[in-house]
Design brief:
4% strand; 139 residues; elongated; 50% helix
């Protein structure tokens, strides 16, 4: 405080405030959750849990969620969960099916080319007047 003509004037407080561009979701480790649950279980006085929550910067919903997870026996439930849809399990046969489908497509294209060449040979032979030998095929 400084005094100006016998009047006390408070000096302006300088705060070091960091403004984050995008807020991030807090993640709590399983060990931290267990520590807080043990501390909350040890609270016997009225309002002691509120003091604990304010000191740690937590909400009561954190405690209720963590208590429920502990009661259900979810050991992994105390670890942070990944957000978003659950990944679908991969079928081990899908790679084999995809490879076989590619092979079938390749053989179909090869067959169509061969049939087009045979048809071309027939037309050329017909134009030139050459008699082609008959094969035992169905065509």
């Amino acid at each position: 405080m400084s005094t100006v003509s016998d009047v006390a004037v408070p000096s302006p407080a300088v705060y070091d405030v960091e403004v984050v561009a995008k807020a991030t979701r807090r993640r709590f480790t399983a060990a931290y959750k267990r520590k807080i649950l043990r501390a909350a279980d040890a609270c016997t006085q009225p309002g002691a849990i509120g003091v604990l929550l304010r000191r740690e910067g937590l909400y009561s919903s954190h405690l209720t969620t963590w208590w429920a997870q502990r009661e259900r026996g979810e050991l992994l439930g105390l670890a942070p969960k990944r957000r978003g849809p659950a990944p679908k399990p991969k079928n081990p046969l899908m790679a084999k099916v995809a490879a076989l489908e590619r092979e079938v497509t390749r053989y179909k294209a090869r067959t169509e080319r061969a049939e087009a060449l045979v048809a071309l040979q027939k037309k050329v032979a017909e134009l030139l007047g050459i008699a082609l030998p008959q094969t035992g095929g169905t065509r």
